[in-house]
Amino acid sequence: MGIMRYCPKCGDITIPSSTKCTFCGHDTLETKYTFKECLEDTSIRKKIKEEYIDNSPEFDEELAKKREEENDKVIHGSMTKEEKTVLQDMGAIPNNNIPKCPKCGSTAVSTGARGFSIVTGFIGSWQTVNRCGNCGHKWRPKG
Asked: Which of 39, 59, 35 is nearest to 49 (CA)?
């Protein structure tokens, strides 16, 4: 899935294909962490900050604060829905709509699988079923 990258200047943590920082334009550098690890373990971002960003001689505290302020604007709704979706797809901001397994919390979920449900002895219906790729748990999504 690729190696996570970070900006040594503003501290942005970004996806594997981003060789330039989307905030300040500085070259990004690779970490030892994969994109998959970052998706599965929310503490990875903190580890990247501690291991790479905090030790960078290029790190600019003021620029980092400005980036955080811009991120806060996005998270608190001052961007259009389309702009927010694009940034979520890029991995620049978290997507809180990612389904998680209710049993183990994994995000390795296949959605939209269909299963047949017997309503009565003679009538059945197809229903959407989610399946966890980690523990195998199956459940119907709410809504």
From this structure: 59
